[in-house]
Structures are given as C-alpha cells and as structure tokens.
Amino acid sequence: MDEKEHRNRIETIEVISPLSGTLKGTVVRSAANELVVKPIEKPGTVTLNTKFVQVEGKWVPDPQISRVIQTLKAGDKVTVEWAWDQEGRKRIIAVSDIVKAPREPERERR
C-alpha cells in the first residue's frame, strides 16, 4: 500500500456519518481505546471505540477521550455521544454526566 492509498484509507475511516446518537448506561469495562456500556433502556452491551485524530502528523486514538475512559471503572454511570464510522464501528465523540460508582475502601497492607 503506497502512502496515498494509506492516507485515503485513514481519511475514509475518519469520515463520520450523520448516523449518531447518545447512549446512557453503566460501564461494564473500559480500556485505553474501548468502552463497553450496558444501556439503561436496552438489554445487552454496546462496545464503543475512540475516534482517531491527527497528532504531530500521525493518526492516533483521541488522547482526550482515551484519558477520560481510562478513569472509568465498572459500575460508573455515563452518557456517551457516538457516531458510526465507515467501518461500522461506533466511535466515541464525547463522554459526559459521569457518576462514579461507590468503591470499596482499600484494605490496609501489612
């Protein structure tokens, strides 16, 4: 794949369709580039991925969104704005209304 084909592929991935929405639910699992949420109004789970942005000439997962989802733990309540990408994945546009789940107190180490 030459540089032009590679650039076109990345630009295609970045085009976000007008099909988008908002999802309210409970975090099941979070990672650097992925968030799994159990919606309040539907059964099952939804997997969302971070959108990609260009940083210093390279396409990388959006660092701001990645930082936010890395702070989320299972049980936290969130609202996620998302949009479909060209590859059929739901890409995270924003995360808001974060309500942290109660945490167990850390046990004393001896």
Q: How does this model look, in words?
A:
The chain is an alpha+beta fold and 110 residues long. It has a single domain (3-99), classed as Nucleic acid-binding proteins (OB fold (Dihydrolipoamide Acetyltransferase, E2P), Beta Barrel), CATH 2.40.50. Helices cover 18% and strands 48% of the residues. The protein is built from two helices and seven strands. It has helices at residues 3-14, 63-70, and strands at 16-30, 34-39, 46-50, 52-55, 58-61, 77-85, 90-99. The strands form two sheets. It has a five-stranded mixed barrel. The longest helix has 12 residues, at 3-14. The radius of gyration is 16 Å and the shape is globular. The termini are far apart. Mean pLDDT is 83; it is low at 10-17.
